[in-house]
Specification:
With 865 residues, this protein is mainly beta. It contains ten helices and 48 strands. The strands form 14 sheets. The chain has a five-stranded mixed sheet with strand order 2-8-7-4-5. A four-stranded antiparallel sheet has the order 12-11-14-15, with no helix packed on it. β25 and β26 form a beta hairpin. The longest helix is centred in the N-terminal third of the chain and has 23 residues, at 3-25.
Length: 865
């Protein structure tokens, strides 16, 4: 930022603050006089949002699905949530692979290098078949709603260890009794008949609902009666074969169609306004977020038919009605599977407003509709795209219609908000601004029209804007064998995620669909998404909240240790030396700093992989220990909340993945993989014998709950806890003197319980607590820190040497080439080189994703012959 721009920004903030302050001090003012004050608050609000530096994260993967024995390659794009530029503050990301039960199976911390964030997960040959979720976030993103984390559902199969193929189906969901039918087959598609099979059915919380065992039928099938569907919501069935010949275990999760479904109605503008013709959008979905197809009828309170409705696309649709004052409206619908539902529409409002929008490829027009008893005087219409304020328009009874050329707005979600003179939102509307004619233009030019086996391929990639001006971009490219890997053109991609799904509330089914073309049907269905999903980046109801954003987690620019040092007398230790030492597989790491005038310190610039344990200490100039060091705790692992349902795969998709798994199996054995057999194992359920028992009235703080508090001396915490839970009197920390030298971080549990009439507060210390206490006795702390993962590189065989080209080892790669560091230079060009596999007539799919230098997401998919 130049000095001139910097001082201009400071001046605008100062003017906005001064205007807001003067408006706040004004005791009485007319509505018209308050509009400048409201405009100043709006400017201040958007400035506060920009100053929060919210981030978006997208991961490009080399394939849409994987098999045991594969490597899952990814490139992460971390961008600013407003301008989508990659000049973000965070230099580390966290990536987790999570199973259907919500448990993390893999996790990595990845450091930004000169190419960005790149790494992989190695999927072991024993990995169980199932659906998994890939999640990614930064430490800075922990300051905001976890809904902003990256999430993507990924199927992973195991053709190596699964000698048995199990397939589940269900009886008609509309029948009185429901059954799960599981069929077992061997590798040659022959049924496993007359085998004893045990099964257990669990609900979504892991509570067992029923169990049983059967001998499989002649077709290799078992039939398990299911509890009521509501009890199966999010549940699963575990099946087990255990005999002298084999051991096999498999878990199936019940589909979204088992979940109760609901219908929501969304009047355009937010409220159902009396006396105004309105478009009403609707959306049907199961409780897990998967869409439901349905049809039905809308009735008035007098029983008259108002409209007949049918879901048009992914459970969504739109109809028009004129709500009447005093009427209550209801809908009676029938889902495609026969289930029925009756639900109420929103209440008709006698006074209110609605933003009505009409859109064409060239223009967006709006109209402010008001109920007969409402006046539109002294209101403001505010519009923004991702927090970039695009218009502030004064609205009155003579100024209810307006619009903007589409090309004058940034691409993305345009959020329109109608505010009254007090700054209260009265109506909202989302519109998607699309610029397909301004999208980038790709040129993919192989050096030959056709290739044979093990030949070198040179592809020149050129990228320009719509006016043929070269674009500079940071990209990643994947080349896969089109015979075994089938791309999903409807799934989320970097363009649909950054421009659409990352800014919306709720699940968007197949977001890639809305960017396949600019046909009228596609635009109309995209507008249904706008009407049935809300903006979620920030809440304009807080426009009058002038409090500054105060993060709880710092920006993670480097690996660091921070904390606070006190003198023996309890005073702040100014200019005290602090030393951190670690020795282990990362070698000897030693750094020292001095505290500031408040006694705070930060030891930054640490470099280590995996995990390291640091001994942090501080002493006086005469070698005497300080009173103590407090180490700050940051970036605790967040809980997991699934944002997208696991959708049912079509028969075509299942067939495609079966072909892929067969190829992956062949590749595994060719590369020296060994046959995997599952043996019966013992399930060990860990029970912490140190966990105290408490009464019904008792309370137990475990280490997770204790970590939520700022670390304080354990006796003080226990004394304060006693005082908060009893009225019989005060208790001094000296009462708990046996815990002197320990802090709340040293405790596994703190128990609060009633022993007869007395209240008892006890603590259970961690095994390493005594070592920590001894360290504190010499003015030191021991802290364990997570380092970052080592960099990895994709292996691509090079057949330039005759002995490599003539090798008898088959080449059956599914990902033929992966390059997460493709740089499109200032001339708009880049080059990739790789060798073909053993196909005589290879056919490859090439997928490129990236972000241009000015923050525009770009994407390409094509086929190389």
């Amino acid at each position: 930022m130049t000095k001139r721009l910097f001082f201009k920004s400071i001046l605008l903030i100062a003017i906005s603050w001064t205007t807001t302050t003067l408006c706040a001090k004004g005791e009485k003012s007319s509505a018209a006089d308050s509009l400048p004050c409201l405009t100043a608050r709006i400017d201040s609000f958007f400035e506060r949002q920009r100053s929060a530096h919210m981030e978006k994260l997208w991961l490009h993967l080399d394939k849409p699905y994987y098999a045991a024995g594969d490597e899952m390659w990814f490139k992460a794009y971390l961008v600013d949530a407003v301008n989508h530029c990659s000049d973000t503050l965070s230099n580390f990301i966290y990536v987790d692979l999570i199973d259907r039960k919500g448990e993390i199976v893999f996790s990595k911390k990845v450091k930004r290098d000169r190419y960005g964030f790149t790494n992989n997960f190695i999927i072991p040959a024993t990995f169980p078949t199932g659906d998994y979720t890939l999640r990614a976030y930064t430490g800075w993103m922990l300051n905001f709603d976890p809904a902003f984390f990256f999430q993507k559902n990924i199927p992973i199969g195991n053709p190596i260890a699964d000698q048995i193929d199990a397939e589940i189906s269900y009886t008609d969901l509309s029948a009185a009794k429901k059954q799960a039918v599981v069929r077992f087959r061997d590798e040659n598609d022959r049924p496993y008949s007359d085998i004893n099979i045990q099964f257990k059915i669990f609900d979504r919380n892991g509570k067992r609902l029923s169990s049983g065992q059967q001998r499989s039928s002649a077709t290799g099938s078992v039939f398990a009666e299911l509890p009521v569907i509501s009890a199966c919501e999010g549940g699963r069935i575990d099946l087990e074969i255990d005999n002298d010949r084999m051991y096999y275990k498999r878990t199936f999760f019940f589909p979204g169609s088992f979940s109760p479904f609901g219908i929501q109605f969304f009047p355009e503008g937010g409220d159902l306004i009396a006396g105004q013709p309105q478009r009403i959008a609707f959306k049907g979905e199961s409780s897990d977020g998967s869409p439901i197809s349905f049809s039905g009828t809308v009735f008035g309170s007098n029983g008259d038919t108002v409209a007949r409705i049918v879901s048009e696309h992914d459970g969504m649709g739109v109809f028009t009605m004129s709500p009447q004052s005093g009427q209550d409206y209801r809908a009676e619908v029938t889902a495609s599977d026969g289930r029925k539902l009756r639900t109420q529409l929103p209440t008709v409002k006698e006074d209110g407003y609605a933003i009505v929008v009409s859109q064409s490829p060239r223009e967006i027009r709006y109209k402010i509709a008001a109920a007969p008893g409402s006046t539109c005087d002294s209101m403001i219409l505010v519009t923004h795209v991702r927090g970039i304020c695009t218009a502030i328009v004064s609205v009155d009874s003579g100024n209810l219609i307006g619009g903007w050329p589409t090309d004058s707005l940034p691409e993305g979600i345009l959020h329109l908000i109608l505010l009254d003179a007090r700054g209260k939102p009265r109506s909202e509307r989302l519109v998607f601004v699309s610029h397909p004619h301004q999208r980038e233009v790709w040129s993919i030019a192989p050096d030959k029209p056709k290739y044979g086996r093990r030949e070198q391929v040179h592809v020149r990639i050129a990228l320009t804007d719509a006016n043929a001006i070269p674009l500079e971009a940071d990209c990643s490219v994947s080349v896969t064998d089109s015979n075994s890997v089938k791309p999903d053109s409807l799934s989320d991609n970097i363009r649909s995620n950054l421009l659409l799904s990352s800014d919306l509330k709720g699940h968007v089914e197949n977001p890639g669909y809305y960017f396949l073309n600019d046909a009228p049907d596609t635009r109309r269905r995209l507008d249904m998404v706008m009407m049935t999903n809300g903006w979620r980046r920030f809440d304009l109801n807080k426009i009058n909240d002038t409090a500054r954003f105060r993060p709880t987690q710092p920006v993670e620019r480097d690996l660091f240790i921070s904390g606070h040092v006190k003198w023996i007398v309890g005073m702040k230790a100014k200019n005290a030396p602090v030393i951190a030492v670690s020795s282990g597989k990362n070698g000897i790491i030693s750094q020292s700093v001095k505290t500031d005038k408040k006694g705070d310190f930060r030891i930054g610039g640490l470099e280590f992989h995996d995990t390291a344990k640091f001994f942090v200490y501080s002493q006086t100039a005469k070698g005497k220990p300080m009173q103590g060091i407090e180490i700050d705790s940051y970036y605790s692992r967040p809980g997991f909340e699934r944002m997208h349902p696991f959708t049912e795969r079509t028969s075509e998709q299942k067939k495609e993945q079966e072909i892929y798994l067969e190829n992956a199996k062949e590749k595994y054995y060719i590369e020296g993989g060994k046959k995997i057999y599952y043996l019966k194992g013992a399930v060990v359920r860990g029970i912490d014998k140190r966990r105290p028992r408490i009464s019904v009235q008792g309370t137990l703080y475990d280490s997770a709950r204790l970590s939520m508090f700022k670390p304080i001396p354990l006796p003080h915490f226990m004394a304060r806890t006693f005082q908060m839970n009893t009225r019989t009197g005060m208790r001094s920390p000296t009462f708990y003197s046996q815990y002197n030298g320990f802090t709340t971080r040293d405790a596994s549990y703190v128990k609060i319980d009633h022993n007869g009439q007395a209240l008892v507060v006890e603590a259970v210390l961690k095994p390493e607590a005594e070592l920590q206490r001894r360290a504190r006795a010499v003015g030191a702390e021991i802290c364990k820190m997570a380092g970052y993962a080592e960099s990895v590189q994709f292996y691509c065989p090079i057949y330039s040497l005759p002995q490599m080209r003539e090798s008898e080892k088959p080449d059956v790669r599914t990902t033929v080439y992966w390059n997460p560091t493709l740089k499109i230079g200032s001339d708009g060009t880049g080059d990739i080189y790789f060798y073909t596999d053993d196909n005589d007539s290879p056919r490859y799919d090439i997928a490129i994703e990236g972000v241009t230098r000015d923050g525009k997401p770009c994407k390409y998919w094509g086929r190389l012959q």
